[in-house]
Design goal:
Distance between the termini: 31 Å
Order of helices and strands: HHHHHH
Low-confidence stretches: 11-24, 139-145
Radius of gyration: 19 Å
Shape: elongated
Helix content: over 70%
Number of helices: 6
Largest sheet: none
Structural class: mainly alpha
């Protein structure tokens, strides 16, 4: 069975189950995702290493943009009777600069991983991405949680 058909069958089996959240945090989810993609795309060792680098870059980008940290920082700025506009602008500018600085590494990691995939693996990855976009990703069928 080619990887594309294996992916379709694996998705059908998997989508019948409710997805669980990972209490161990983002790194265990990244490990889980790496394992699933590695299996579904039949990745070799080099491809697995590139995928791990990509997922690490994505995690770093998400960490830089964490909503909770920004919320905590803004809450601190709201402690006074007036909002310090300059400090607030500086905070937002710093967050955006951090996110912007991480973009080249993220794009390079994505390209390095994608370029190692053969045509069937690329097709299978595009299929997985379409499923995610249509709501059949991490939380199962659309509307289920």
């Amino acid at each position: 069975m080619n990887p594309f058909h294996a992916l379709v069958h694996a998705h059908r089996r998997h989508s019948a189950h409710h997805h669980h959240r990972h209490e161990d945090g983002a790194s265990s989810f990244a490990d889980h995702l790496a394992g699933k993609l590695s299996h579904r795309l039949d990745l070799n060792g080099e491809q697995q290493a590139k995928l791990e680098t990509l997922l690490s870059a994505v995690q770093q980008q998400r960490q830089a943009l964490r909503r909770e940290a920004l919320f905590e920082d803004i809450t601190g700025l709201l402690a006074g009777s007036t909002l310090d506009r300059a400090a607030t602008r500086q905070l937002v500018d710093e967050r955006l600069a951090t996110a912007q600085a991480a973009v080249p590494a993220l794009v390079d990691a994505l390209a390095d991983f994608y370029d190692t995939l053969d045509a069937e693996q690329q097709q299978a990855l595009r299929f997985v991405m379409r499923l995610r976009r249509r709501g059949f990703g991490r939380f199962g069928r659309r509307g289920e949680q």
